[in-house]
Write a structure and sequence with these properties.
heterodimer; A: 531 residues; mainly alpha; 23 helices; globular; B: 201 residues; alpha+beta; 3-stranded antiparallel sheet; 9 strands
Chain lengths: 531, 201
């Protein structure tokens, strides 16, 4: 039983989301039949994808994959932002100016704009296991190269190269969707993404501690920070080896072995790209994610130095404060998905849009405040509130993205992710690479920009569900979920039955009308794909 | 509700008392004479070169000006050119917030004359253009006077320090070896699995 075209570009990113449905820990049997012939530790469906998400298990292959996957993503976050808490030392060693530091921050997030787009194709061709392992083991040398850097140029180049490794986000989410049933993939992917992002926080704790230990062992500061980088480098290598030896692409084995059998009808990349790019909502969310995820990445790069300089904290204390920003991801991102679902129950899609606007704008307000306050306790308070707002907004964003398009979900998710990195590069360039205003002012301006760039969410309108201010269309045809999702297919494609997955999705998405309208169960004969 | 309000008032007063009452640089007089061994424009290598500083009371000031001087701290300070585009080295009038002089050379109890000190420039001094300044502190650890080896505009007698790179041959070799290991291990696994796949067909 397949409810989507296998291998189509959309399916690989299925559930990058936070939706479908979030917070479901397991799928009940009548909804998705269990394959009783399969011998796995967890109950599986007919594709051998797990129906249950058992967090503290290492059962092969499903839960083991989950842990390998989020840990790889976590490791790349640690490596990419490892320099940030050590900047006060590095800037003296390499004689950096404020623009050098800012440009390096931009470079660290720019590389993955492209690598994330490429990684989807790599996962399709080589499988997520190789995709992930290749990336982290080939980026380990770039981390080790930090020990060789002598000037601003070298620093910027190395940070740029390390940043490519953030594409493990794609392999992580792709891998999850091969292992977990679609009905729980929302929670699984949301947790994996949030826990991976925590790496940006963990590194702010880890690197200063490593630096202090190495210094105490006798190294001078300008050597100690270089040695400290060997640890993230080795984390990359170890995770890569673990992924290769303990991971597998699919529940039944590895991709190479399984690619021999099965006829895989693939959707045309050009078509999928077209429907992603011509949907105006895609671009609004690319912008929006740049001001939730984007600012989160920016803060990962600048906040430790900010607390060190503005409040005269010791290096490891500044690291602890900075870490609490990134670590909030453990709960804040899933929280955003949760509030999105909660609002959707009552108010449908309109509730989700308002929820996103509220969370992201609140984040902007607290960011504005963070730059304005002069006392340390207030600054920490504002920073934590800002982190909750921004990270919950990330979770809430992916609560809406799956509904923009069924056919092009993968590409839209990828573009949104790239938008996050682009937003980060842009904000660092405009607000933090400039010597003409202080970091504090930069934070406040960024807060204002967040508030402004979140306003376009009010323009997102679904004919079948309405928008923040406008009601749904009352037209019987145009106001139906089916019309919206099936309009992505041409007549010829519909003749071939390629739109069946979209039809089924449209049915299930009726819950986005909110109120008492629950998901209407489909009559048994209407959908030939439904087993 | 009497005690809480009293407490609130006192803590507010304390807040105001501690802020806004810092010593400012412009309030200090140049009561110390300071000289340093580097000549104008000389380049010194950190971890290698020596620097000798001498300081003493400026006799042109009336005697008794230095009656409350208890300690002297001699510091390496950034010249304006090394502060450019680097706001973490900014000169601010309020001494508590001033970041011009971040590297201490020596701290000594105050004595009006014959103070001299020689040391090697530490290996954690960053590259830049510097001058030497000495601050005199009173019993409350507040600045009460200063002296520097350059003029008021910070233009003369500036010298350059070249930092260590922090790099070591052993680190370079380790870095290259580990990188090679990572690439080779990856390639090894890949070919091993490909050949296993071929042989099992």
């Amino acid at each position: 039983m397949r409810d989507q075209i296998e291998g189509s570009p959309g399916t690989s990113m299925h559930g990058v989301t936070g939706r479908e449905p979030v917070l479901a820990f397991s799928v009940a049997s009548p909804m998705v039949p269990t394959d009783t012939t399969a011998k796995f530790d967890l109950p599986v469906d007919s594709e051998h994808k797990a129906k249950v998400f058992k967090l503290f298990s290492l059962a092969n292959p499903h839960m083991r994959t989950f842990h390998l996957s989020w840990l790889s993503f976590f490791t790349t976050f640690v490596s990419t932002f490892a320099a940030a808490p050590l900047v006060p030392i590095i800037r003296d060693n390499l004689n950096l100016t404020k623009s050098d530091i800012g440009n390096a921050g931009v470079a660290s997030v720019s590389g993955s704009i492209f690598s994330r787009l490429v990684m989807g194709a790599v996962c399709d061709m080589l499988g997520p296991r190789y995709g992930c392992a290749f990336l982290i083991m080939l980026s380990a040398p770039t981390v080790f190269c930090m020990a060789l850097v002598e000037d601003a140029t070298g620093y910027i180049v190395v940070r740029f190269m390390i940043g490519f490794s953030l594409a493990t986000f794609v392999s992580c989410q792709y891998w999850m969707s091969t292992m977990f049933n679609g009905k729980i993939i929302g929670l699984v992917n949301g947790t994996a993404a949030g826990w991976g992002n925590m790496g940006g926080g963990a590194t702010q704790l880890l690197m200063p501690v490593l630096f202090e230990i190495i210094q105490k062992a006798g190294a001078t500061p300008f050597t100690a920070w270089r040695i400290a980088f060997f640890i993230p480098g080795w984390m990359n290598v170890i995770m890569g080896i673990l992924v290769l030896t303990m991971g597998q692409d699919l529940p039944d084995g590895n991709l190479g072995a399984l690619q021999k059998k099965g006829d895989v009808t693939k959707d045309k990349f050009g078509k999928v790209l077209w429907y992603a790019v011509t949907n105006y909502r895609t671009w609004i969310f690319v912008l929006l994610y740049g001001y939730s995820m984007g600012v989160e990445l920016t803060i990962d790069n600048v906040i430790a130095e900010y607390f060190y300089d503005r409040f005269d904290l010791k290096l490891h204390l500044a690291g602890i404060v900075a870490a609490s920003f990134g670590m909030a991801n453990i709960l804040a991102r899933p929280f955003g998905g949760f509030t999105s679902d909660f609002m959707a129950k009552r108010f449908g899609m309109r509730g989700r849009l308002w929820n996103l606007w509220l969370l992201q704008t609140a984040g902007g307000v607290f960011c504005l405040g963070l730059g304005l306050v002069n006392s340390l306790p207030l600054a920490i308070t504002f920073m934590i509130l800002f982190s909750i707002g921004a990270q919950a907004a990330c979770g809430a964003t992916f609560g809406i993205i799956p509904f923009i398009s069924r056919r092009s979900l993968g590409i839209i998710s990828g573009m949104t992710g790239a938008g996050g990195n682009f937003g980060s590069g842009l904000t660092q360039l405009v607000f933090f690479a400039n010597a003409s205003f202080s970091t504090a002012k930069g934070l406040s301006y960024m807060g204002i920009m967040i508030i402004m760039c979140t306003l376009p969410v009010s323009l997102v309108h679904f004919p079948q569900w309405g928008s923040m201010f406008l009601p749904a269309s009352t037209d019987n045809v145009k106001g139906s979920e089916e019309h919206y999702y099936v309009s992505e297919w041409t007549e010829e494609e519909k003749q071939n039955g390629m739109h069946q997955g979209s039809l089924k999705f449209a049915e299930n998405s009726r819950s986005e009308r909110g109120g008492k309208v629950a998901s209407i169960p489909s009559p048994p004969n209407s959908n030939p794909n439904h087993v | 509700m009497e005690v809480p309000t009293g407490f609130l008032v006192i803590s507010l007063l304390l807040c105001f008392a501690t802020t806004g009452y810092g010593v400012t640089f412009t309030s200090l007089q140049r009561t110390l004479v300071v000289t340093a061994s580097p000549t104008e424009g000389q380049v010194l290598k950190a971890g290698d070169a020596n620097i000798t500083v001498t300081w003493g009371f400026n006799r042109t000031f009336p005697s008794g000006t230095d009656s409350d001087y208890r300690t002297v701290k001699v510091k390496l300070c950034y010249a304006p050119i090394s502060q450019k585009d680097r706001s973490w080295r900014k000169t601010v009038d309020e001494m508590k917030k001033d970041k011009t002089c971040q590297h201490k050379i020596v701290a000594r109890p105050y004595s009006a004359s014959n103070n001299t000190f020689t040391s090697t420039i530490l290996r954690d001094i960053p590259s830049g253009t510097y001058f030497v300044r000495a601050y005199a502190f009173n019993g409350n650890d507040e600045e009460v006077g200063f002296g520097q080896n350059t003029n008021g505009k910070l233009e003369t007698n500036l010298f350059v320090i070249q930092a260590i790179t922090g790099r070591h041959a052993s680190l370079d070799i380790a870095s290259i070896c580990f990188s090679a290991f990572s690439v080779v291990a990856l390639a090894g696994f890949f070919y091993m699995e490909k050949s296993k796949g071929k042989s099992s067909k």
